[in-house]
């Protein structure tokens, strides 16, 4: 969103429209599964806030600095609504193995540079007010916040690769009280085209993950920036038990039907020229 005066929004059931939201100008926007966006202005002290683009609500946060490095790419999630005084904001810089924590009233962020050896976090999510993660080596993990940040490695997910797949992107998604992992498989390392999607649901009583072909009539939304979210299909006016996703440098929106195992394509805002920016999903804030 940097240096963009106007923002283009695409509604899955109604089409696209253009808005001018001043708070989103000249900043980097990182979505959360809870509907709020973390907006970081990259100049100076990297002022940041949580912002709801649907209601225009805003909550200021301490400035965010990565030691001497500027913020470039973060995956963010909230423990609860920012209106809750106990809300904790978690930001993860996967490439630098950094976690940032912030609670209401904090004057600065807690920085946690973790060391898991050859393993590291690839995605994060919130479940029942607590933080969890997936690791590069396909483990489920808990993430404890300040005052003593810690990552605890739990059970493996036992991923099964489809024939011909050579690389994948994994997501951890909470959906209406259930935890899912979503794997998008690709055929070539440099290809941005997804050829198959697999979904697993966690059984906490067994600490095991089972492949599923239904997600309770809901939808899961995947961003090309490691972000994800889930919502009621009926409220969005779309077919349930589907995975909607976008690809890097691609103007299309794809829909993978879990029950049928096939993919359909949307062409939103087809007259717009590619901007090179990564599209993000925005949901009603919780």
Structural write-up:
This protein has 286 residues and is mostly beta strands. The chain has a domain at 70-266. 1% of the residues lie in helices and 45% in strands. Strands 20-19-21-22-23 form a 5-stranded mixed beta sheet. A 4-stranded antiparallel beta sheet has the order 3-4-5-6, with no helix packed on it. 34% of the residues are buried.
Secondary structure tally: strands: 23
Query: Given the helix and strand composition, which structural class is it?
Result: mainly beta
| Topology as a string of helices (H) and strands (E) | EEEEEEEEEEEEEEEEEEEEHEEE
Helix content: under 10%
What is the straight-line distance between the termini?
A: 23 Å
Low-confidence stretches: none
Shape, principal axes of CA atoms: globular
Task: Classify the beta-strand content into a percent band.
Answer: over 45%
| Main beta-sheet strand count, sense and barrel state | 5 strands, mixed
Radius of gyration: 18 Å
Domain KIB1-4 beta-propeller: 9-254
Protein name: KIB1-4 beta-propeller domain-containing protein
Pfam families: Beta-prop_KIB1-4
């Amino acid at each position: 969103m940097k240096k963009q005066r106007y923002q283009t929004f695409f509604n899955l059931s109604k089409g696209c429209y253009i808005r001018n939201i001043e708070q989103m100008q000249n900043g980097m926007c990182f979505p959360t599964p809870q509907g709020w966006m973390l907006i970081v202005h990259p100049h100076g002290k990297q002022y940041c806030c949580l912002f709801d683009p649907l209601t225009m609500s805003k909550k200021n946060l301490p400035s965010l600095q990565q030691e001497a490095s500027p913020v470039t790419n973060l995956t963010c999630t909230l423990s609860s609504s920012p209106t809750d005084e106990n809300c904790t904001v978690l930001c993860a810089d996967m490439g630098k193995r950094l976690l940032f924590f912030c609670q209401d009233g904090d004057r600065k962020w807690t920085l946690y540079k973790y060391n898991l050896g050859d393993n590291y976090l690839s995605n994060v999510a919130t479940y029942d007010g607590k933080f969890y993660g997936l690791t590069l080596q396909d483990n489920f993990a808990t993430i404890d916040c300040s005052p003593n940040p810690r990552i605890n490695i739990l059970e493996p997910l036992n991923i099964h690769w489809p024939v011909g797949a050579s690389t994948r992107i994994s997501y951890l998604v909470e959906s209406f009280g259930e935890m899912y992992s979503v794997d998008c498989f690709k055929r070539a390392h440099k290809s941005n085209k997804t050829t198959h999607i697999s979904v697993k649901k966690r059984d906490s009583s067994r600490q095991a993950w089972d492949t599923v072909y239904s997600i309770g009539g809901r939808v899961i939304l995947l961003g090309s920036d490691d972000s994800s979210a889930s919502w009621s299909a009926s409220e969005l006016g779309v077919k349930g038990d589907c995975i909607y996703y976008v690809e890097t440098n691609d103007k299309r929106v794809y829909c993978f039907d879990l029950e049928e195992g096939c993919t359909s394509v949307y062409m939103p805002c087809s007259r717009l020229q590619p901007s090179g920016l990564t599209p993000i999903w925005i949901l009603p804030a919780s």
